[in-house]
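A quick aside before the break. I want you to see a complete sequence-to-structure record at least once, exactly as it would be stored in a machine-readable document. Don't worry about memorizing anything.
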Amino acid sequence: MFEAAGSPYLVSYSDEFGIASARTTPPAGTTLDESRSNLKRLKKQLSDLQRRLYAQNKFAVLLVFQAMDAAGKDSTIRSVLTGVNPAGFQVFSFKQPSPEELDHDFLWRTARRLPERGRIGVFNRSYYEEVLVVRVHPEYLGSQNLPYPPDGDRLWLQRYASIREHEKHLARAGVVILKFWLNVSKNEQKNRFLARIDEPRKNWKFSESDVRERGYWNDYMEAYEDTLNATSRPWAPWYAIPADDKPYMRAAVAEIVVRNLAQLRPDYPRLSVEQEAALGLMREHLENE
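That is the input. The structure line, written in C-alpha cells, reads:
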C-alpha cells in the first residue's frame, strides 16, 4: 500500500501535532521570484507525471483541500493544476449538503465523486466538513436525521474512525490520498477580507457569514487540531501548509504532489511482442495504401 513522501509540513502520525506551533509564513529568506520559479518548474513535472498516470491507468490520486475562509483554496487548485490535461483531472466543490445528500451517510456524497483510475481528483472541502464545520455548529446535526441521538464527543470519535477506515479502503484500492490544510493566520484572513471589501472586483467574494464564522476561530482551530491528529496516516497524510504567502503556498503544495506522484513511478504501458508485431503490420498496411 502506498505511503506518502515526507515533508517539513507533514502532520505526524503520533498525535503530537499542535496548531500553535504550525507555520503560517514561509521560512526566512524565501523570495517571490523563487516561489514562482519553483511553481513553474513543478507544474511541468506534474504535467508529465499526470500523462503517465493517465496512460498507466492503475492508480487514482485524490487531493483534499480544507482551510478557513480566504486561505486560498481556489487559487491554489487553479495555479497548481493549470497546464494539466483537463481529461486527466476533475475538481468538485462541496458546499451545504442537499436534502438528498442528508438522507445518506456523511461519506456518500463525496464517495460518488472519487476519481477514476488514471485521474487526479480534487476535493475543494470534503467529508471533513462533518468533523469541522458541523463540530463547531452542532445545531447542523438537527437536519441530518441521525438514527441515534448524538452522544457528545463520541460522535466525532466515531466519524474519525469512519474516515480512517474509508481512506484505508481507498488506499488499498490504489487511491493515493494527499490532504492539505492551508494554514492562514487570523490577521492575514482579516487583511484578505478587507481587500474583498475595498476592491470592487473582489466584492463578489465577500459574505457576511465569513465574518460571523471568524468569531468561532478558536473553536475551528481546536477542531482542526483534533481532526488532523486523528486522521493523518501514512496512506492518507495531512500536510499543514503555511498560507499567509500565496506564491509560497502554491509551490509547497505542488512540490508535495509531484514528490508523491513520482514515488508511483507511473509510465506508459509497454506493448507485448504480439502487439508490437501487429503495429508493424499496420504500419506496412498504411505505407502501402
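Two observations worth writing down. The radius of gyration is 21 Å. The chain has a mean pLDDT of 94. We'll return to this after the break.
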